[in-house]
Amino acid sequence: MNGGTERSVGKIEFGELLEAHRHELLVHCYRLLGSLTDAEDVLQETLLAAWRGFEGLQQRQAARAWLYRIATNRCLNAMRDRGRRIPLAPEPPFRPPPPSRHGDVPWLQPFPDTLLDEAPDVDPGPEARYIAREAIELAFVAALQRLPPRQAAALVICDVLGYPLGEAAPMLGATPTAVKGLLQRARSSLDRQRRDARAEPPTPGSAEERRLTQRFAEAFSTDDVDALLALLTDDAWLAMPPAPHEYRGAAAIAAFLRASAEWRAGRRFELRPTRANGQPAFTCRLADASAQPTSVIVLALSGDRIHRITRFLDDRLQHHFVPSAAGLRSSGSV
Question: Locate the RNA polymerase sigma-70 region domain: which residues (predicted)?
Fold first, then answer.
C-alpha cells in the first residue's frame, strides 16, 4: 500500500513538473531541430524518458536543468539522423525560373506564436546573449541548423537559456573547457551567417507593422507583383521550404511570382493573418470553391520594408495556426 501511495504522489509531482516545463521544452526542441513536427516527436520521447527516471531525481529544484539535459540529448540523437528529417521536395506544378540558390534547410518549419504564448515567462540566466524575440526568429533557427549538433546545443544552452559553462557541461556530457570550445566555434559560425545587417523592424503588433503586412497581403493575393516588389528591400529573399528554390532580389522574385500567377490562370490566394516565430505571418488558401490550403507565409521585416518571405509549402501546417484578430482577411476580392 505504501508503494502505491508513493507512486501516486510521484505521478502528481511529475504532472506538476510536466505542466511547468512542457511548453518551454517544446520551444527548446524546436530551436535545435528547426521542425515543429520533429520537436513534438522528440518532446514525447523526452517526457517518457523523464517519467522513467523521475524517481531517481534527488533534488526537485534541479528538475529544470535535468529536463533540459534529457531534451538536449534526445535532440542530438535526432540531429545526427538527418535522413529521417529531410522531407521530400514537392514537385512544382509549373516550370519555375532558375533559382538564385538552393536552400540547405528543407526541414525548416514555422513555430506558432500561440504556442510561444503558452511557454512560461522565464528570465534567462546571466550568460544569455540573445533576447527572447531574436532567439525564436526564423533566421536564427535556420542558422542553428547549419551548425554541428553539439555546437548548436552549446549555443542554445549558454547564449539563449543563459546557463553558465559549469551548469551547461553536465547537460552535454562534457567538461566546461570542451563546452567553451564548442561555444566559441558556434558563435564564430553564427556571426559569419548573420553578416547581412537589417534595420530594426517595427514593434510587433504595431500600427506600422500592420500597415506593411496588410499592403503585402493585398499585393500578394491580387497578384500585383509591382506593388509587392515596392515593399521589398533590395536584397530581399523568397524561400519555399521544403522546396529548395530560393530567389534573391526584385528581378528573381518577380520572375517566380509572375510564373506562379500565370500557372494559376486567375485563381487567387486568400491570406489570413497570424503570427509565427514572433513575426507577422499568414495562412494561405486558394480563394475558390475548394478553399484548398496551400502554405503558411512568414515575413521578416527590416525597417519599413520586407527583407524575407518564407512560404512553407506544407498544407498540413495550417492546423497549428489561428487567424489573428488584429488583422483583416485579404483575398482577390480586396
Answer: 17-85
pLDDT tens digits for 19-46? 778 999 999 999 999 999 999 999 999 9
Q: What is the mean pLDDT of each run of 10 residues along the chain (334 residues)?
A: 39 71 94 96 93 66 85 93 75 92 95 89 77 91 95 97 95 96 96 78 95 98 97 97 96 97 92 96 85 88 97 90 58 35
Domain count, the chain: 2
194 falls within a domain: no
The rounded distance, in Å, linking the Cα atoms of 286 and 332 is 10
102 within a domain of the structure (yes/no)? no
pTM of the model as a whole:
0.89
Beta strands in 152-292 (DSSP E): 232-239, 245-248, 269-276, 279-286
Q: In terms of Cα–Cα distance, which of 143, 120, 99 is closest to 237?
A: 99
Residue where a domain terminates, one of 79, 112, 142: 79
**Which grid coordinates are listed for 30?**
524546436
Could you list the residue range(s) of the whole structural domain that residue 250 is in? 207-320
Residue the block writes with cell 507577422 = 280
Instruction: Tell how strand 305-312 and strand 245-248 pair up.
Output: unpaired
Q: Which residues of 199-228 are buried (b: 16+ CB within 10 A; e: fewer)?
A: eebbeeeeeebbebbbbbbbbbbbbebeeb
Q: Could you give the strand order of the β-sheet that contains 245-248, starting from the edge strand earlier in sequence?
A: 101-102, 245-248, 232-239, 305-312, 293-302, 279-286, 269-276
The CA distance from 169 to 159, in Å, is 14
The answer to the question of residue 114 being in a domain is: no
Q: 167 is written with which cell numbers? A: 551548469
